[in-house]
Design a protein that fits this description.
alpha+beta; OB fold (Dihydrolipoamide Acetyltransferase, E2P); 4 domains; five-stranded antiparallel β-sheet; 36% strand
């Protein structure tokens, strides 16, 4: 090897050794410096360990060279019972609320960390479409506010079920107050952490919930089953009964054996009743119910209670061109034919009685198979005298 080549090798070796020495010195300086490998920055969500519980603050290590401080002002935002049970060595979530200053100290917040986790939960619910239950804690002119752990969710009025439209300001306030404290099934429909917007919908949640419940009911229910439901709404033709997420129709004729003009005469919204499943129509998602089938048919033993020739008190229920109908007992209605209302000398027999009036009648016929009873007020008057035949309620 030439002398020149030998010199070049020696020169490169010396340079490499010098570079290695320089790198080592820089590394040692870095280790001795006050800076951290992973210096906390404002807004960072960290997992830390409590290293000291002080009377007015906590010291928490989040992996940096210096411990962060959770001040009393932050602890005051938390549940007192939660703060009371904090202990040294416990792992807690914190957010860096103030980055390290010149002296290396920095401030942490447990309250902000809990809220950040709630925002993460809200986003997951939005992404999954999952339904969750929350309590109504207030309202404003636009809708309801609900608890969402340490956040507040908002349910617009247009997403509240059974919320009447075109209400005055006072009427809307009354509707909102009525729902205060209520537990609602809700779906998250908007999460905007920057604007602190968490919007939820009861309408969409209930629609999805009831669809699932209805599908489950149709697989579980059978005709003839007796179930307990809640009266959800009343209509002239019947009542809708909530069977646990799906509604069945209880027709007005199936509410009881006694005839009624409107379901409100026998039922009220919110009432719990037992009903029998009469019909199931999975294709059209309809359930027919009966309440009167659970009670004994009063016509089955009517002949044991009423005999031809017997004079009994009845209540006139309605008038027709051919006579008047009268209730003998709940579920048993008889007909007083026009010719049996009054003496033949009376020009307008129908005007001698009115709906709701209590009178005495004589039983002319009892036909349990056809569910008919023939009555006569005229013959009762002949037998007892008009003064005794008409009674006051």
């Amino acid at each position: 090897m030439s002398e020149s080549a030998q010199n070049n090798i020696e020169t490169r070796t010396v340079e490499r050794q010098a570079q290695d020495q320089s790198d080592l010195e820089l590394f040692e300086q870095y280790l001795e410096a006050d800076g951290d490998f992973d210096s906390p920055e404002r807004g960072d969500l960290r997992e830390g360990v409590i290293v000291e519980v002080r009377p007015s603050e906590l010291l928490v290590n989040v992996g940096s060279k210096r411990d962060g401080v959770v001040p009393q002002s932050d602890l005051a935002k938390l549940d007192p019972e939660f703060v009371k049970n904090l202990y040294e060595g416990q792992t807690v979530d914190v957010v860096v609320s103030r980055p390290p200053e010149d002296d290396g100290t920095f401030q942490l917040s447990i309250a902000d960390a809990l809220q950040q986790k709630d925002w993460i939960i809200a986003q997951k619910l939005l992404d999954s479409g999952e339904i969750s239950t929350h309590k109504v804690i207030g309202y404003n002119k636009g809708g309801l506010t609900v608890e969402f752990n340490r956040l507040r969710g908002f349910v617009p009025a247009s997403h509240i079920i059974d919320m009447p439209r075109n209400l005055s300001e006072d009427q809307r306030r009354i509707e909102f107050e009525r729902r205060n404290g209520e537990e609602m099934r809700l779906k998250v429909i908007e999460v905007d952490r920057r604007r602190r917007r968490l919007v939820m919908s009861q309408m969409l949640a209930e629609r999805e919930y009831r669809t699932h419940q209805k599908e489950a009911l149709f697989t579980r229910l059978k005709v003839g089953d007796v179930v307990t439901g809640e009266v959800r709404s009343l209509r002239p033709f019947g009542a809708f009964i909530d069977l646990g997420g799906a509604d069945g129709l209880l027709h007005v004729s199936e509410i009881g054996w006694a005839p009624i003009n409107h379901p409100r005469e026998a039922l009220e919204v919110g009432q719990k009743i037992e009903v029998e499943v009469m019909r199931l129509d999975p294709e059209n998602q309809r359930i027919g119910l009966s309440r009167k089938r659970l009670n004994a048919n009063p016509w089955s033993d009517v002949e044991s209670r009423y005999q031809v020739g017997q004079i009994i008190p009845v209540t006139v229920t309605r008038l027709a061109d051919f006579g008047a109908f009268a209730q003998v007992e709940p579920g048993i209605e008889g007909l007083i034919h026009l010719s049996e209302l009054a003496d033949i000398s009376v020009a307008e027999p129908l005007k001698t009685v009115r709906a709701g009036e209590k009178i005495l009648v004589k039983i002319l016929r009892v036909d349990p198979k056809r569910q008919r009873i023939g009555l006569s007020r005229r013959q009762a008057l002949d037998a007892t005298g008009e003064e005794e035949a008409t009674t006051e309620q």
